[in-house]
Structures are given as C-alpha cells and as structure tokens.
Amino acid sequence: MGTLNRLHLIRQVDLFTLRLFLSAIEEQQIGLAAIRENIAASTATKRIQVLENIAGVKLLDRTPKGVAPSPAGAILARHARMIFDSLDDMRTEFASLTEGVQGELRIVSARSVIVPFLARELGDFNREYPLVDLVVHEVENADIVQEVARGEADLGVFASAYGLDLDGVEVTPYRRDRIVAVVPLGHPLSGQTSVTIRDLLPENLIAPRALVGALRAAAQRVGEAYAPKHVLRSGGAAISLVNAGLGVTVQPECLVGHEWTGRVAVLDLDEPWAERRIHLATARGREFSPATKIFIEQLLTRPVDDDHLDDDL
Asked: What letter does residue 289 receive in the DSSP assignment?
C-alpha cells in the first residue's frame, strides 16, 4: 500500500464507500454491511479494499468472528462520522427553507423490513422534513396491504408472500434480500454450504409466521406436508430455539445479526422462493400527498443495482 495522498483521497473516496465502511464496523461483518447498504458482498469487499489502498494502511482487522476497526480505521471512522454529522446539520438547515412539506405521513410495515431497510430512511426523512408528522406502525406482513387499501395508511412496505392479496393497491419494487437456513452448530446439515426444503422438512422446522404459507407451499411441491410445531413472530426468538437445539429455521438473511456468529450455522437456501422481494404499496387511484411522494422518491433513489457501483471506483 502507498502513502495517503489528500488530493487522491478527495477525488477517489465517495460518501457511499465511507458509509459502507462505517456499516461494516457497526455490523462487525462486511456481508451484513453489504445487506444493510443493499449491494453485493463482493462489491462491498472490493470497495473497502480500494479504500484501504487509497489510505495506504489496513483499516479493518479480519477475525474469525468478523471485522473490527484497526487503529487507522478507528481514526477514519471518527472523521467519517463527523462528515455525516455535518451533512445532517446541512439537511436540517435546508429543511427550514422547505416550506409547505408538512402534514402527516402514515407508514405500515413489518419488523423484518423496518429493521434492515426502513429505519435509516425514516431517520433521514425526519431530519430533512421535520414539519412532517411521521406515524409508523409495525403490523403483520399480511395486514400491510389491507391497511393501505382501506386508506388507513399512506404507504406500506412489505415482503412478497405466498397467497398475498394485492387487490386495491399499486405495487412498486423496492429492495431484495435472501432467505437463509439457520441450524445448530454441529448439526448434520451444518457442514453443508446450502440446503433445500427437502433437507429441512425431516427436521423440526421452526416457522417464522410470515413464511408459514411459503413453507407449506414448498413442502407440497415436493410431495410433503408441513405442520410446524413452533410458529414464532420474532426471528430472534426462532434463532434462540435453534441455538438451544430445538430445531432449524429459515429467516431473512438481514435479520441474522452478528451476535449469532459462532453460535449457529447459516446456510444458503437453494430454493427459487428464497429471494425475498420487498415492495411499496400505495392505494390504487389515490393522489399522493407531497410528503408521501417525497418519501417514496427517497426510497427509490437509494442504490439498488450494485453492479454499476463498481464503475465509481
């Protein structure tokens, strides 16, 4: 690695890479940071490697449990946070000039979408448009579309699911992530890199409530019946049962946090339905409020396609 060149740093390092670097520190894994920032893990790794080359020093220490900032990385993280704090202050000052964008914005979503995708977006929006009264309700995935169709919410953000009735709403693609299998360490399946529904059905397959329909349909396609013994709303609770040796489960990858590293085995789920698609729902035929329109534009302008990001470096 070379030495740090200030002009080179200014020209080559973009804000997205700095945010990705901070996410890697906060998540303690580059893979989880990639999910959080909605890019491929390989792209995230490449970006951080290029950042280290520009800095001329190692920024992340790699360990079996993940990553941690090196002494140089801690310095960069401190200054990067100062940069983003300054940007937040700038947005707040701009917000004072944004007259007319006010009122109430009602959003319904499920925890599995709020935690990895919406929380940061809502924070950014609230800082930029402080006159808008944000009302966020966590509801079951299956109820989101109905609340939007009935006019009880301006916007719903939901994961596509087997048999979900989309009547009365307009649907816009938003994000994607993967469903993965989680099994105890030392389990016969834990040494595999991927599993299928056929592999999981003979086990005590603990079901997330939102995926019961998909699991039953998948079981039917391979000629099996699925009657789960345990159905849990919380992904963390389901993984806790797996950790205790009570079975296996499937979960959105973005919800399997770094705290489970070294405690359970996470495997790819080799099924066509394992790609989880996140959508925005708005009432069909209803005019958007200014706040709703601006928030939707914000959601859709965040990077979605990771391949084109490589060209920025």
From this structure: P
**Structure tokens that stand for 24 in this block:** 């890697």
The pairing of strands 275-283 and 194-195 is unpaired
What angle (nearest 5°) sits at the alpha carbon of residue 193, between those of residues 45 and 306?
30
H helices then E strands: how many in the chain?
12, 12
Distance between CA atoms of 70 and 88, rounded to whole angstroms? 26
**Which token pair is 290?**
């200014």
Taking 70 as the pLDDT cut, the residues of the chain under it are: 1-10, 91-100, 162, 303-313
What pTM, to 2 d.p., does this model score? 0.59
Question: What CA–CA distance (Å, rounded) separates 256 from 234?
Answer: 11
CB 183 within 8 A of CB 256: no
What H or E segment, with its residue span, contains residue 271?
Answer: none
pLDDT tens digits, residue range 57-105?
Answer: 899 998 888 899 999 999 999 999 888 888 877 766 665 565 557 778 9
